[in-house]
What we know:
The structure is a single chain. By secondary structure, this protein is an alpha+beta fold. The chain folds into two domains: 1-66, no CATH class; 69-131, no CATH class. 22% of the residues lie in helices and 23% in strands. It is built from four helices and nine strands; from the N terminus they run H-H-E-E-E-E-E-E-E-E-H-E-H. It has a three-stranded antiparallel beta sheet with strand order 7-8-9. A two-stranded antiparallel ribbon has the order 1-2. It has a two-stranded antiparallel sheet with strand order 3-6. It starts with a helix and ends in a 14-residue tail after the last helix.
Amino acid sequence: MRQALAEEHVVLQDAGIAIDARWGDLQYAMRNDKKIPIPGAQGWAGMFSLIVANVSKDKGYNPIMHGNSYIQVISWDEEGNLQPGGILTYSQSQEPESAHYSDLTEVYSRGEWIDFPFTEEDILADPNFKSLTLTEAFE
């Protein structure tokens, strides 16, 4: 452990990064000139939140090259009710002008999830619910 810490200390020094720098200042996604801290590490470290990024001089672990994108979980509350949730880590839009360019990335950064409707009643009660029926025409 001491050797690994000493080796990482050298890596950070060579990159111009202080040993006491906050992780969120080192590993982040850029959205419209805003740094959004991103949790996680590479898979070999046994992390649930997988992120792959090389350390860059004076930038930290940026840019993030790949990692979690869509995560979905199912749990139960104390009464046994399903609690489905998930997150689209990179947000819903790649367009910088969109209100959805960084929204879910910020939710992910805070360690939060989106509650998903699960039952038929929940789904139909969603104010954004739309139903589309596709049919195939045969000649």
